[in-house]
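Cross-posted from the bioinformatics board.
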Amino acid sequence: MEEVTLLIVLVIALALFFDFTNGFHDTANAMATPIATGAMKPKVAVTLAAILNLVGAFLSTEVAKTISSGIIREGDSGILISPELILAGLIGAIVWNMVTWLYGLPSSSSHALFGGLIGAAIVGFGVNAIDYGVLLSKVIFPALLAPVTAGLVAFAATKMAYSITRRYDGRPDGRSGFRYAQIFSSSLVALAHGTNDAQKTMGVITLALVTVGMQDAAQEGPQLWVVIACALAIALGTYMGGWRIIKTLGTGLTAVKPAQGFAAETSTAATILASSHLGFALSTTQVASGSVIGSGLGRRGSSVRWGTAGRIGVGWLLTLPAAAIVGAAAAFIAHLGFWGVMLDAALGLGFIIFIFLRSLRDQVGHETVVNEVAASADAVKITRPSKRSGTVR
Amino acid sequence: MIDWGAFVVVFAAALVGTVVVVGLYALGLRLLVVGGRVPVVVPAEFTDAITVLTPAEIASAERKAAKAARKNPLTPGQRRLAAYTAYACFALCGLAVLFGIYLIVPFFHAGA
C-alpha cells in the first residue's frame, strides 16, 4: 500500500510539473501577438494570461474526460492500466517537452503527453491497449485539422477586417483602434488555453486515481481538488513563462499588425473553444501558429516561406512518435518492479535538472528561446511596404 | 467510427464566431472613422518588435486624424448617428463573445 501511495504522489507531482511547463511554454500563444503590436504592456499581458488560464481551467471538463476515460481502454471491458505506466508516460512527455524547448524545436505539449502515454501503454499491454478509434477521432484528426481550420478562419477574418476598414483616399483609416480589440481577443485565447490544456493534466491525474481505486471509475469528471491544483499549476507556469516571451519578441513577430493580430487571436480562441467543447484535445500552440500564418496570408503582398513552414510542420509530426518512444523506454524500465519505477523517477528528475542547468547556461539570445508562434509569423513574407507617414498603425 | 460531422461543426462555429466578432468590430471602427472620430492608439510599450514612434510622429498622426474630422462631409447629426452605430457595433461584438462563452460553459446549462 505504501508503494502505491508513493507512486500516486509521484504521478501527481510529475503531472503538475508537466502542467507547469505547459503554461510556461504556452504563455506566448495568447500573448505574443498583443505584445508584438503594442496592444498591452508585456507585464500586464502576462499577468492577465495567468489569471485567465486559472479561470479557464474551471470552465469545462470535456477534454479531461477524453483522456481519463477515452483513449486507453481501461476498466472491466479492457485492460487495467497501472500507475507505473502513467508515470512512464509522463516522463516521456516531460523529457520530450524539455528537449524541444532546449533546442528550440517547434513542438506541442499536448502531443508529447499523448505520445508518452501511448508509448507506455503499448509496452505495458501490447498494441491492443489503445482505442485507435478514439485516438484517431479525438487526437490525430483534430491535430491535423484544427490548425488548418484556424488558419482558414484567420485568413478570411483578416481579409474582411482589412477590406472593411480600407480607405482609398489616403485618409487615416483608424486601424490602430484594433489594439483595443486585441486586449479582449488575446484574453479569450488565454481563457481557451485554460479550458483545453489544464484539462489534459486533470485527465491524467484522474486516470491515475481511478487505476488505484481512489476514484470510482463510474465518476467521469475530475475531482475538485484536482481541478484546483491543475488550474494553479498552469497559471503559475504561465506567469513564470513571461520573462521568456518578453525577451524573445525581437525575432519573428515584427510583421504582425493590430488588425491582423485581432483576427488571428479571435480565430484561435474560437477554434480552441469550439474544439474543447466537443472534447477534442488539440494543441493550442499549433492552432495559434495556424492562425498567425493564415492571417499573414490574408494581408496584401504576402507569400509563404515554405522552408520555415516546412520546418514547423516536421516538428509537429515528430512530437507524438518521439514522445511515444521515450514513454515506451520509461515503461520498459518501470516493468522491473518497484526499483524500476524509482530508477525511472530518478532518471526523469536528473534529466529535468540537467536541462534546467543547460538552459541557465545559455539563457536569452540563444535560439532556444525562439517561440513557435513567432516562428510561424516568420513563415509568411510581407513584401509590400506598409509604412505610411502620418498614421499610427 | 470517426465523427466527421463534429469537425464540420468546429469549422462552422469557429468561422461564424470569428466573422461575426471581427466583422462587427471592423464595422464599428469604420463607422467611427466615417463619423470623424478616428482612433489613434499608440503601442502601450515599444518592445523589440515595434518600430518606435517619436512623440512628433504620434502628434502628426493625431493632427491628421483631427484634420480628417474637420473636413468631414457629413452633417453633425449624421456624424453622431455614425458614432452611435459604431458603439452599437462594439457592444454587439462584446455580446457575441459573451454568448459564445455562455454556450460552452456547462455551468449555465446544468438545469437542462
